Amino acid sequence: MSILKTLKLTTAQPVRTSNDPVERARNKVIAALAEQKAMAEANLAGQHYAPAHMVWRKNEEGQRVQVSQLKRLRAGWFVDASGQTFFGLRYAGKPIEFAKDKNAIAVGELTALPAILDTLTEAVRAGELDAQLAAAAAERGHMLRKAG
User: Fold this and answer.
1) pTM of the model
2) Among residues 13, 68, 87, 145, which is most buried (max CB within 10 A)?
């Protein structure tokens, strides 16, 4: 008992993550935008961006083990025939419309993309895309229920 008295004891509980679906959607999009920014910056530096994540696989003995695997990412930007760069955001398998019938942001040069992604991240944090994210998630839910 004297050993425990040497420790600083307290009452504490872990911080719970939000169960709010809107907050969860925002966090998911913010994480995806951070990955897009890292990929764009690596592309500008002439490097390849491939983050690793942990997955479960069976080894030779048939036991499930965690291994590191490269994450497959798709660039959210594309270049049209005239050489102009555009960025489109997808959520729940659907392109997000930023305004009525406007589903892409004209970036111009690829060097401007990281700054635009920062601006877009702030817009998501402020809740400016909540309605679009909720609509995409609802549409995805209807599609999955029809397939099942």
Assistant:
1) 0.79
2) 87
Determine how many CB atoms are found less than 10 A away from the CB of residue 114. Answer: 16
DSSP state of 18: P
Instruction: Give the pLDDT confidence of 22-31 residue by residue, as tens digits.
Output: 888 899 999 9
Asked, for residue 104, whether it belongs to a domain, the answer is yes
Give the chain's domain count: 1
Answer yes or no: are the C-beta atoms of 77 and 107 closer than 8 Å: yes
* Helix, strand, coil % over all residues of the chain, rounded to 5: 40, 20, 40
Report pLDDT digits (tens) over 95-144. 999 999 999 999 999 999 999 999 999 999 999 999 998 888 888 765 55
62 three-class SS: coil
Host domain of residue 91: 20-147
